[in-house]
Amino acid sequence: MTLLSPSRRLRRTAFSEGVEAAGVKAYTVYNHMLLPTVFRSVEEDYHHLKQAVQVWDVACERQVELRGPDAGRLAQLLTPRDLRGMLPGQCYYVPIVDETGGMLNDPVAVKLADDRWWISIADSDLLYWIKGLAHGYRLDVLVDEPDVSPLAVQGPRADDLMAAVFGDKVRDIRFFRFAPFDFQGRSMVVARSGYSKQGGFEIYVEGEDMGMPLWNALMEAGRSMDVYAGCPNLIERIESGLLSYGNDMTDDNTPHECGLGRFCNTQTAIGCIGRDALLRVANEGPIKQIRAMEIEGPVVPACDRWWPLKDGEKAVGRVSSAAWSPDFKTNVAIAMVRMTHWDDGTELTVETPTGLRPAKVRENFWA
Amino acid sequence: MTLLSPSRRLRRTAFSEGVEAAGVKAYTVYNHMLLPTVFRSVEEDYHHLKQAVQVWDVACERQVELRGPDAGRLAQLLTPRDLRGMLPGQCYYVPIVDETGGMLNDPVAVKLADDRWWISIADSDLLYWIKGLAHGYRLDVLVDEPDVSPLAVQGPRADDLMAAVFGDKVRDIRFFRFAPFDFQGRSMVVARSGYSKQGGFEIYVEGEDMGMPLWNALMEAGRSMDVYAGCPNLIERIESGLLSYGNDMTDDNTPHECGLGRFCNTQTAIGCIGRDALLRVANEGPIKQIRAMEIEGPVVPACDRWWPLKDGEKAVGRVSSAAWSPDFKTNVAIAMVRMTHWDDGTELTVETPTGLRPAKVRENFWA
Question: What is the ipTM of this complex?
């Protein structure tokens, strides 16, 4: 790994002090902000995440706030998911598409009220797209990045840790629902969600000044639960089939190619900008799609570029994320594969920077 | 410095092989792409840039292409700079503002033809803003990121190196003009421009496959000229007063606050979205503005966050970029300062992470 040069442009977060005190070893950059990637080691962090509980600085999941009479209309313009049945207190995973049906982001929409939404974004300046549309359509809505920093609590002991800080009522929050909770006299949105399959919560911390008090309270309350600082874990997210915008998909891909067709109600999502472009693919299905992939051999190198997938000489797809899984004793990977070769068990060859490897398509992810 | 975790999301460039072979030591991330920051050391790179010639991988200056009958109208929507007199073959530095007059980016616009423009962007997904507007205004224009990778040749011997590869006619290009030049049978736009004050060119390499052939040709031709791989240099850019979007300005700032009022023709830039919002500040001037700043004492730490500027207890601004200058034997810095304290010679105090330092406002940058 090379070094990362610090600058103000790579924004620190409301939790950076805590992250540094916990001995962060590496970062990535996400929405112009520092996102920790390693504390003890990727493998140690992985085992700990599956056994205990971690506090994650995911402030880089910046929010785009929509506020005003046209907020709901604007939200529906953005996504082929039908939002009509969505109630305040719900979170929806919403593929965001442009007029060609290409993915611009895959955020979680948080409906605070009919006229107030947060869009919790993946790594692209979705704020710019939404502002441009709001202006072009002359909508009656304010679009801005509020001072909100998500903090995630993830792992099998997440409920216990959260209950110790927010009270037992936090256990009642259902998956992808949220409710306001009090912390030191300030109200915070707490959702049952997060970028792992180990269970947990995301706390939307309003006001940067509340970042470190909450971080410290969680660390303090979790002492007996083996709490530690953590971060989205490369291995665990691949095992769990959690896609990463910019890694596994870009604006070249439709939601259907990304296996997100179940989040598209293309017939009924009236108003969605990409609806017309998606009708055909929604009916016929895509010609390539995301698949879980097993790569044989020893630990793969870092997947810092597409690795071509071949059937003999024929290009049939590419791997976008890969890592060695200690639990499944194989290299786990995410790939985009053409329909001629995407069936469970199809044997292919992958070109890694350290040579060719046999690889096999799997029907499902590992977790 | 901490480590940077590799992933496909942090895109490699058409020149990454060359950059790695030259021994890159550190990166930053810019437009979701790797941008080298250090080769030998920031200071060695600095001296070499001022004495010889460097080849810079600035592929991260991604292009937004506007193509179609409404391309010119769309370009004028984006900026308060009057584009009516701009001819094909010219480059303009164009502040881009939203409807509130806040800066969204500060790119260079390259007018290829009346109906074809490239916007060579700083670090924000300006593509999203432009696409959103084009769609909202129903303009007859295609907006996309083309396969174009800028490569810069910078330093006092840049003309000689470029002439060795592209022929002597390249010397005739005037500042912020461009012309097409042939390289191995492919046409490339070559502009006299670049993110240093040492003189030089930017080559807009169309087609990723041409990246390494051109890199290698420049390295080969420059052997006798002490050519080396380089990158935008923190010290040199501060001395030269070259602003960095995300560091020295954000969407909270108007162009006038950034000292870019001379690029705003607010009266005549009819169509510009931010025009109305900027009329008042264009007449009255801003109440805070970018200033060059000298910071006393030994070498300052890395400026990875705003450093508050104080007059006694009173907050009067903040420093956004700072570095030790070997040539000027002082810490050079860029700050946003309130008008009550922005006069040449005003003495202030700056709060750095390693303690308070005396600082002084300067009328001009160093170079």
Answer: 0.97
